[in-house]
Design brief:
The complex is a heterodimer of chains A (about 280) and B (about 290). Chain A is an all-alpha fold. Helix content of chain A is about 80%, strand content about 0%. Chain A folds into two domains: about 55 residues; about 210 residues, MetI-like (MetI-like fold, Orthogonal Bundle), CATH 1.10.3720. Classes of the chains: A mainly alpha (about 280), B mainly alpha (about 290). At the A-B interface, helix 1, helix 2, helix 5, helix 6 and helix 9 of A face helix 1, helix 5, helix 6, helix 9 and helix 10 of B.
Chain lengths: ~280, ~290
C-alpha cells in the first residue's frame, strides 16, 4: 500500500473522529461553523490524495490542486465567460422574467377568474422541462446572449408568478378589514399591507429562480453560442478532455450560484425581519 | 362543495388555454410570414395566412402541426422504429426512472443518517443546502464524456445525472419530514420506552410521508430534465433530448416541438402518478380525508 493511500485513510478517519467530537461540544454556534468547514477541507484533501495515490488519469478526475492552478492561470477567460453567460444572459433574463412575473401577478390579482385559471397552469408549467425550449430560442434569437436571456425569462416566469400570486392571496382577513375601516384605497392597501406580507413568498420565488436562471443560461449554450460563455467552454473543453478547465468553470458557476443566492437571502433578512421565519 | 370547487377551476383554465391557442395562431402569422413571402409569390391574404400555418419548416409551427406530427410518430410508426416518438420517449423514461429511483433511495438513506447522527447533520446538511444553489446541470456533459471514456455508456450516465438532480429535493424534504413530529409525540414514545428504531417506524417515518411525496414530485420532474440534458452532449441518437438536438441540426422545428410536447406529457404523467399514489397512501393513513 502506498503512502498516499495510507494518508488518505488516516485523514478520513481522523476527520471523522474529530467531527464527531466537535459536534458534541456545548457551544453550538462554534461547532455549527467548524464542523461543515472541516468536512469540506477533509473532503478536498481526500480527493487530492486519492487522485495521487491511485494515479488517476487527470482526463478522468483532475486533483483540486490542478484545478486551482488552472483557475488562477486562466482568470481572464473565466471572466469573459462569466460576463457573457451570467451577467449578460442569466442576470438580464432573471430581472426581466422575475420583474415581468411580479407585475403580472399584481395585474391579475384583481381578477379572480384569471387567478384561478393561471395558478394551476403555472404550477403545471413549473414542472415541465422548459430547458428543452433552448434550441428553439437559439433559432429565434440567434447565438448570442439574447437567446439565453429569452430562455431564462421563460424558465423563471412561472415559478415567480405562482409564488407572487400565492403571496398576495394569503392575507389575514382581519387585517384587510382593518385597512377597510381606515378607508384605505386599493393602492394604499397594496403598498402598505399586501405587498409587505407577500414578501416572504416573493423572496422564495426569487431564490428558486436564481438557480434556474444559471441553469438556463448555461444549458442554452450547449445548443449554440459565440466562442465564449461558460456553457460553450464546458462543452468544448470536455470535447478536448481538458477537465481541469471544466472544473474551473464549474467552480465559477458554483461560487456565482452561492453568492447570488446568499445576496437574495441577505436582502430577505433585511427587508422581512418581522416575519416569524426570520426570527431565531 | 368539492365538485363546485373543481368546476371553478376547470372553466378558467380552459378559457386561458383557449386564449393561449388563439394567441399562438396569431403570432405564427408574423413569425412565418417572411418565409412564406420568400417561397411563394402573389398570394391573397387568406392564402398567405394559410401558408403561414402549414409551412414544412416553420419558424413557429402551429399546434395542429405539432399534434399531427406527434400522432403520426406515436401511432403510425413501429414502436421499435427510430422515428417513433414512443421509442425515444421510452429511452428517456428508462433513464429518468432509474435515476429517480436511485436518487430517492440515496436521499432517504442520507436523510436517515442526518436525523440520527448529529455529526453527520452538522457536516453534511450545510453542503446539501449549498449544493442546491449550484447549477448542477452544467456538469452533465462532463459526467457523460468521462463515463463514456471508461466504457460506461447508454442508460447509466444519464441515470446518474437524473439521480444527482432528484437526490437533493428528497434529502431536504425527508429531513424536514422526519423532524416534523412534535416534542410531545417524541416524549410520548419515550414514555412507552420505544427504541429509536420503533420511533423511526411508528412515528417519524409515517409523519414524513407528506413531505416525501412533495419532494418526489419535484424530484421526478428534475429527473426528467436531467435525463434530457444528459442526452445532449454525448451525441446520443436516441431519446427525447437527442431528438431535440437532431431537430436543431436539420432545422426541423416541428420535430423539436413534438419532442418538447412529448417531454411535457411525460412530466405531467409522472407527476400525476405520484400525486395519485400520494392521495391513496395518505387517505389510507388518514392524514388527509
Amino acid at each position: 500500500m502506498n503512502t498516499f493511500l495510507l494518508l488518505f485513510f488516516i485523514i478520513w478517519l481522523g476527520g471523522w473522529w474529530l467531527n464527531v467530537r466537535i459536534s458534541k461540544f456545548e457551544n453550538f454556534n462554534l461547532s455549527r461553523f467548524i464542523v461543515p468547514s472541516l468536512f469540506g477541507i477533509v473532503f478536498m484533501l481526500m480527493w487530492e490524495l486519492i487522485v495521487i495515490g491511485l494515479t488517476i488519469n487527470p482526463v478522468l478526475l483532475p486533483a483540486p490542486s490542478a484545478i486551482a492552478v488552472k483557475f488562477s492561470s486562466s482568470l481572464d477567460i473565466l471572466w469573459i465567460d462569466f460576463v457573457q453567460t451570467l451577467v449578460k444572459g442569466a442576470l438580464s433574463g432573471y430581472i426581466l422574467g422575475c420583474g415581468g412575473a411580479f407585475l403580472t401577478a399584481i395585474a391579475i390579482d384583481k381578477f379572480d377568474f384569471l387567478k384561478r385559471g393561471l395558478l394551476p397552469l403555472g404550477n403545471f408549467v413549473s414542472a415541465l422541462p422548459i430547458v428543452g425550449m433552448a434550441p428553439i430560442f437559439v433559432m429565434w434569437f440567434g447565438f448570442d446572449w439574447q437567446s439565453k436571456c429569452a430562455i431564462v425569462v421563460v424558465m423563471v416566469y412561472f415559478p415567480m408568478l405562482v409564488n407572487s400570486v400565492q403571496g398576495l392571496e394569503l392575507i389575514d382577513p382581519s387585517r384587510q378589514d382593518l385597512m377597510r375601516t381606515y378607508n384605505a384605497s386599493y393602492s394604499q392597501t397594496l403598498l402598505k399591507l399586501r405587498l409587505p406580507s407577500a414578501m416572504p413568498f416573493i423572496f422564495n420565488g426569487l431564490k428558486i429562480c436564481s438557480t434556474l436562471a444559471l441553469i438556463g443560461a448555461i444549458v442554452a449554450e450547449f445548443f449554440g453560442s459565440p466562442i465564449k460563455g461558460m456553457g460553450f467552454r464546458i462543452s468544448s473543453e470536455v470535447g478536448r478532455f481538458a477537465l481541469d478547465m471544466v472544473w474551473a468553470e464549474i467552480f465559477v458557476a458554483a461560487m456565482a450560484g452561492c453568492l447570488f443566492y446568499g445576496l437574495i437571502a441577505l436582502i430577505e433578512r433585511r427587508t422581512t425581519f418581522w416575519h416569524p421565519s426570520q426570527q431565531k | 362543495m368539492g365538485s363546485n370547487y373543481k368546476k371553478n377551476k376547470v372553466v378558467p383554465v380552459t378559457a386561458i388555454l383557449l386564449l393561449i391557442g388563439i394567441f399562438w395562431y396569431l403570432v405564427a402569422i408574423p413569425m412565418n410570414s417572411e418565409k412564406v413571402s420568400r417561397q411563394f409569390k402573389n398570394l391573397s391574404t387568406s392564402e398567405h395566412i394559410q401558408k403561414c400555418w402549414s409551412l414544412k419548416k416553420p419558424k413557429l409551427p402551429t399546434p395542429h402541426q405539432i399534434v399531427t406530427e406527434m400522432v403520426n410518430t406515436t401511432f403510425f410508426k413501429k414502436v421499435s422504429s427510430k422515428r417513433s416518438l414512443v421509442y425515444h420517449g421510452w429511452i428517456t423514461l428508462q433513464a429518468t426512472l432509474a435515476g429517480f429511483f436511485l436518487g430517492t433511495l440515496f436521499g432517504i438513506l442520507l436523510a436517515l443518517g442526518i436525523v440520527h447522527n448529529k455529526a453527520m447533520d452538522l457536516s453534511v446538511m450545510p453542503w446539501v443546502i449549498a449544493s442546491q444553489t449550484i447549477p448542477i446541470l452544467a456538469i452533465a456533459p462532463m459526467i457523460i464524456v468521462v463515463m463514456n471514456s471508461v466504457g460506461v455508456t447508454g442508460l447509466l450516465p444519464k441515470a446518474i445525472i437524473s439521480m444527482y438532480l432528484s437526490f437533493f429535493p428528497v434529502v431536504v424534504g425527508m429531513v424536514k419530514g422526519l423532524r416534523s413530529p412534535d416534542q410531545i409525540q417524541l416524549d410520548q414514545m419515550k414514555t412507552w420506552s420505544a427504541s429509536s428504531n420503533q420511533i423511526l417506524w411508528y412515528l417519524r417515518f409515517p409523519s414524513s410521508l407528506p413531505f416525501l411525496f412533495a419532494s418526489l414530485k419535484v424530484g421526478v420532474a428534475a429527473s426528467l430534465v436531467g435525463a434530457i440534458v444528459g442526452e445532449l452532449p454525448s451525441g446520443a441518437i436516441s431519446g427525447l433530448g437527442a431528438r431535440m438536438l437532431a431537430g436543431t441540426y436539420y432545422g426541423q422545428t416541428i420535430m423539436i416541438w413534438s419532442a418538447l410536447f412529448a417531454a411535457a406529457f411525460l412530466a405531467a404523467f409522472l407527476v400525476f402518478i405520484i400525486d395519485f399514489s400520494q392521495k391513496i397512501v395518505l387517505k389510507k393513513m388518514a392524514i388527509i380525508r
